[in-house]
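Retro notes (design track)

What went well: tokenization of the new backbones is finally stable.
What didn't: we kept losing track of which sequence belonged to which structure.
Fix going forward: every design gets posted as structure first, then sequence, in one message. First example under the new rule, 89 residues:
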């Protein structure tokens, strides 16, 4: 049973990695910067849930050259699935 679960998770991971997006639409969840450097966020409210966020939000994602902050990791993960649905041009 453990092998089956491991095998399925491996297949799903590989499938997720194979989805390629143009460089301009790729989303990065790497930290915006070292904690000592202030980063200007593109938003004041969480694009996923609408909750106000602090300027030093730890959960961030990069999309189309901007850094977006989130109130929680789960909101960031929702955004990363389809950022175009949350960002108005």
């Amino acid at each position: 049973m453990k092998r089956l679960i491991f095998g399925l998770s491996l297949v799903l991971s590989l499938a997720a990695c194979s989805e390629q997006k143009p460089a301009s639409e790729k989303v990065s969840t790497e930290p915006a910067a070292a904690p000592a450097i202030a980063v200007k966020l593109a938003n004041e409210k969480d694009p996923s849930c609408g909750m106000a966020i602090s300027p030093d939000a730890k959960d961030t994602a990069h999309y189309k050259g901007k850094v977006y902050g989130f109130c929680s990791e789960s909101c960031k993960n929702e955004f990363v699935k389809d950022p175009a649905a949350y960002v108005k041009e």
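Added context from the reviewer: The first strand starts at residue 27 and ends at 28.
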